Amino acid sequence: MTDDADITLWALAAGRGDRDAAARFVGATQHSVRRFLAALISPAEADDLAQETYLRAMRSLPSFAARSSALTWLLVIARRVAVDHVRTASVRPRTVPMSDSFDIPDASRSGFDRQVVLERLIAALPADRREAFVATQVLGLSYAEAAEVCGCPVGTIRSRVARARADLVGSVNSQPVGRRREPGDSAG
C-alpha cells in the first residue's frame, strides 16, 4: 500500500514533467478516485468521471503546491467533476431503461447480494451525507481531509457522517432478514 507522502511526491514530480511519477501517481490513486465517484454519482459513470478528473488534475499538476496531500487535492477535483456532472445532467432529460429492476435482494443471501444492498443504501443517502460517509468510511480520509474535499468545516463532516450512519442503520433495520417467504407460507 502506498502512503500519502509517496503519492504527494509523485504528484510534485509529475508537475515538473516526470512521466514515470505521473504514471505512479495515477496508478496509486485511481482506485480511490473511481470508488469516490461511483459512490457520489454512479458506478456506471465512474470511469468517465475519473478520466475527466485526471484530465483536470494533469493540467493543474504544475501548480500543485502540496498544501494538502495529493490524494486530498485530487478528491477535491473529483468532487468538482461530480458537481459539474450533476449540474449538466440536471438540464438534460433523463431516461430510465424499462428493464431495470429495483427489487432489493434479501440481505441474508450471499456476500455479493449484501454488497449490492449496501451500495444501494449508500446511494440512497442525501448527497451531502453520502459524500462525507464515502470520503471517511469508505476511502478512509480523516475528517479534516474530508472537510477539505467537501468544502465544509470538520464539524459539518462529523455531523453528516453521524447522520449517514443513523440513516444506514435505520435502512438496514427496515430490510427483510432471513429467507424470503414463498407463496403459501404462513406469517407465523
UniProtKB/TrEMBL annotation:
Tell me the protein's name: RNA polymerase sigma factor
Q: Which residues form the RNA polymerase sigma-70 region domain?
A: 34-90
Please indicate if the UniProt record lists DNA-binding as a keyword.
yes
Which keywords, in A-to-Z order, does the entry hold?
DNA-binding, Sigma factor, Transcription, Transcription regulation
| RNA polymerase sigma factor 70 region 4 type domain span | 118-168
State if Transcription is listed as a keyword: yes
Gene Ontology MF: a single term? sigma factor activity
- Output the NCBIfam families linked to this UniProt entry: sigma70-ECF (TIGR02937)
**What family classification does the UniProt entry report for this protein?**
Belongs to the sigma-70 factor family. ECF subfamily.
Q: Which residues form the signal peptide?
A: none
Q: Which is a GO BP term held by this UniProt record?
A: DNA-templated transcription initiation
Recorded source organism is Micromonospora olivasterospora
Which InterPro entries does the record cross-reference, listed alphabetically?
A: RNA_pol_sigma-70-like, RNA_pol_sigma-70_dom, RNA_pol_sigma70_ECF_CS, RNA_pol_sigma70_r2, RNA_pol_sigma70_r4_t2, RNA_pol_sigma_r2, RNA_pol_sigma_r3/r4-like, WH-like_DNA-bd_sf
